[in-house]
Amino acid sequence: MIFTATQIAGILNGDIEGDETVEVSKLAKIEEGTEGTLTFLSNPKYTQYIYSTNASITIVDRTFKKESEIQTTLIRVDDAYKAFSQLLEYYNMVKMNKKGIEQPCFISESAKYGEEIYLGAFSYIGENVTIGENAKIFPNVYVGDNVTIGDNVIVFAGAKIYSESIIGNNCVIHSGAIVGADGFGFTPNEKGEYSKVPQTGNVIIEDNVDVGAGTTIDRATLGSTIIRRGVKLDNQIQIAHNVEIGEHTAIAAQTGIAGSTKIGKHCLIGGQVGIAGHLTIGNKVRIQAQSGIGRNIKDDEAIQGSPALGYSDYNKSYVHFKNLPKIVDRLYEIEKKINIKE
């Protein structure tokens, strides 16, 4: 997409200083700007680059004062950083403004969908599916039988939503995510062989949830695996059967949560965290990256380590961990002196 300085200034309520007709089609860092790109300056540490950048348009604060001539066209706004973010949102809105049903795709006769829907080519919509208003289902998406998808939901290419899943309004499900696969339920017999336990529940994803690329959310054995409203899930997260994640909790990539664990509201969980099954994690808990959680955690705790310790205890202990070779050497010296005296 191509935008002129006049169009951008109109979107941002900004003032142009330079060529009003100059066009841009890409975004760039100010130090890497080239002809046809748009950039911004908000951090004073990067001010030097505005005099050398080849970007066609640069968004700056109204208070910015030039110390020498510049080549880039300026758009002056109240807050350059916020204005650039606003422009990114607008760009995404325009880019995502897809409508209509592409062919080939399959839509069951019993499926229902709202107005302004976009359904990409090679998608499959199963029996008794309900899709809300302004939903966007990108190519190669599978939606199983009896699935409900709310308004303004975006499901990116290649995602799979198994039968009986329920997805609320304003959710985003990224490519490669799988919602509603069977939970990991097997029972051993006397021969040491495993028999599958039928997974008859479903997945419920409430409003305003983001599910990252490659993330998997398993259906419950009985009942529901529940992702509460406002939860943000990074890429490549594994959420097992019957897990419940509380409102507005954010979880970073490669975290694994075992079955039937309950996580509270407003928690922050770092990358590569492992959480054992049947645990209760309180509200506003903060778990540092690569921690291993094998016990219940109370509200407001900060946790780090594997097995996890209290955050402050871990930091104190770490001072000794890294000094262990020196401490051991000192102990040997003390032992030698004691032996000499004896």
TrEMBL record:
Residues 22-89 form the UDP-3-O-[3-hydroxymyristoyl] glucosamine N-acyltransferase non-repeat region domain. Pfam families: Hexapep, LpxD. Keywords: Acyltransferase, Lipid A biosynthesis, Lipid biosynthesis, Lipid metabolism, Repeat, Transferase. It comes from the Bacteria. CDD domains: LbH_LpxD. Its EC number is 2.3.1.191. The active site is at H241 (proton acceptor). It catalyses: a UDP-3-O-[(3R)-3-hydroxyacyl]-alpha-D-glucosamine + a (3R)-hydroxyacyl-[ACP] = a UDP-2-N,3-O-bis[(3R)-3-hydroxyacyl]-alpha-D-glucosamine + holo-[ACP] + H(+). Pathway: Bacterial outer membrane biogenesis; LPS lipid A biosynthesis. GO terms for molecular function: UDP-3-O-[(3R)-3-hydroxyacyl]-glucosamine N-acyltransferase activity. InterPro entries: Hexapep, LpxD, Trimer_LpxA-like_sf, UDP_GlcNAc_AcTrfase_non-rep. Belongs to the transferase hexapeptide repeat family. LpxD subfamily. Homotrimer. Catalyzes the N-acylation of UDP-3-O-acylglucosamine using 3-hydroxyacyl-ACP as the acyl donor. Is involved in the biosynthesis of lipid A, a phosphorylated glycolipid that anchors the lipopolysaccharide to the outer membrane of the cell. This is UDP-3-O-acylglucosamine N-acyltransferase. The lineage of its organism: Bacteria, Pseudomonadati, Bacteroidota, Flavobacteriia, Flavobacteriales.
